[in-house]
Amino acid sequence: MKKLKRSARLVEMTQYLLLRPHHLIPLTTFAERYGAAKSSISEDLSIIKEVFEEEGMGDLLTLAGAAGGVKFIPKVGEAHAREFIDQLCAMLSDQSRILPGGYLYMSDLLGLPNLMNEAGKLFATVFANQNIDVIMTVETKGIPLAYATGAQLNLPVVLVRRDHQVTEGSAVSINYVSGSHKSLHTMTLSRRALKENSRVLIVDDFMKAGGTIQGMVDLLAEFNATVAGVGVLVESGEVESEQRLLHDYVSLATLAAVDPKEKEIVVQPGNYFSRLKAL
Fold first, then answer.
1. In this predicted model, what pLDDT tens digit does every residue of 171-189 receive, in sequence order?
2. Please, are residues 240 and 275 in contact by the beta-carbon 8 Å criterion?
3. Closest of 253, 255, 206 to residue 98, by C-alpha
4. Is 22 in contact with 73 (CB distance < 8 Å)?
């Protein structure tokens, strides 16, 4: 039990909530932690809730009853989201990222924890009300983004592998066709990794025609699972709509063009804001 001045208690309570998004925290937890009456804790939470809402940090939900408490739902305000997406587009537009063949180097960005955490917050915002059970991605580049999203939603992450590992136990494997190269690939998921009838949010770093993500959708059907949503950090804008294998997704950025000769990269905001209004 800690005896703190109210100002210090407010700071620590705020930190406690920020570190536990989507956790239901009984008022007794705070009351016992600080040796304070529940009425005082309720007043503190009202102050924190007001600040969260004014600063666009998220919602602080109060659930009444014996099993009730408070739950912090992280959300990103539109102004902050636009600022982040503009920053992401600027970073991706650096001409030094152009690789032979017109590919774009992104691995360094995927290794930046702060960048991935912010991207995870945006996905946690847009998919906050989808009753998701688990986050899914395919190894390996989508892993940092998936874990960042899972942390913001307080959800576990399931990894789909390209090749079956003996340490995974029995698994379900499927073949899928790459949407961009039309080549045949395999992906596999351990039977122990995902419960039947789960609601799954698929997250990936890049989508061209959507073949890999469609493969994950088909794999989920083997588990009688439901796709609750699809989030991609960057989508290719060079693929015609009729060539896409997937149309229902949320993207943060769109790679509109890569010109190796002119050393030019055009990156624009994705469909995040339109999808945010639709969901």
1. 999 998 876 667 888 999 9
2. no
3. 255
4. yes
